[in-house]
Amino acid sequence: MRRISIFGATGSIGQNTIDLIARDFAAYQVVALTGGRNVAQLAEDARQLRAEIAVTADEALLPDLRERLSGTGIEAAAGAEALVEAARRPADWVMSAIVGAAGLPPGLAALETGATLALANKESMVCAGPLVMGTAKAHGGAVLPVDSEHSAVFQALIGEDLAAVERVIITASGGAFRDWPLEKLAEATPEQAATHPNWDMGQRITIDSASMFNKALEVIETKEFFGIDPELIEVVVHPESMIHALVGFRDGALMAHVGPPDMRHAIGFALHHPQRQELPVERLDLVKLGQFTFRAACETRWPALRLAREVMRTGGLSGAVFNAAKERALDAFIEKRIGFTRMAAVVEETLNRVSGEGSLIHAGITLDNVREADHFARVTADEIMKQQ
Ligand code: NDP
Fold it and tell me: What is the mean pLDDT of residues 124-135?
């Protein structure tokens, strides 16, 4: 039996992972399941999958979690340190699906045990790509991408020489506002932004799809994950969300990964890698689909894409600053303290304030430095939003 843990089990990726595990329950021993505020779901899943331990990130919810698990023999724990402790429990395969920078410490702890980390938490790669990949290498573990675009690139690169790659194209649906007139964007509400045309995902990533902050994170993730030169990474809007990414080679060939917008494909690929197992995803009828369309990704509509290029140029801890400022701006947008188009302005201003000679963004990429950069960026973004 394979020992597996799921961090962020109560979220959209976590629930899709559980869907796959539950279909073949006898093959797995579930070690740790973790969640945030949804302890009812966490306890239910821990009972169903007979997990060894359930951990909530919120310490105030520990009594509730304990109560729900009483009599089951399943351990309960809470807090950020408990998440890291749970990640240190030996497991063969660990799903990293916490949302935000909070996913980094447990992911690193899992990699230190030599586990295979299935990485949905793109923020880990954006904030600390070299640290994540270096930790995997140092401890004999592996990182497998779960983001559909990166899973697609990973699959297109199997057996290929990276030196023969001419370009990597990642697609974007364009999110909720791809057809809105530009002048209307400033009035967009969180409810409107959280409605995705194709994918069923968590609230935060859905809003990030509308602003393309999600795609910006993915561009940086592509550079960090595969070591691809930023100049070779392109974004193309593909409203149907059927082609997830394409890799172009120096002989002119373009290898595309095509599949329905269902995260169970990328999760299942990472779960069964290096084999391919049958997965419960729709098989595409190309004739019924008829056509795929593409559009340029306009940086006026989606300034987050331009900011991602700046971050890749600057390097160091600027990814951690970018992500943290984006998280604070997103919080403010969700709470209706700032408008939709303000988010990119806040992130840009934060990046401007923290860069320059002697800035902390040029310090080494360690967990402590990432935490410091993250904290500093959050405080700076909050200050900017107070002033605006
Ligand atoms: P959700 O918001 O649906 O779920 C997030 C999970 O993280 C939940 O289990 C949540 O707990 C938990 N959580 C929230 N805050 C914290 C915290 N501070 N500490 C620990 N746990 C926390 O997100 P998604 O599943 O949509 O996304 C998860 C990650 O996967 C993100 O990084 C996202 O970018 C990435 N991803 C998602 C895709 C998708 O299709 N959804 C596609 C590709 C990547 P609770 O709900 O109990 O509060």
Answer: 98
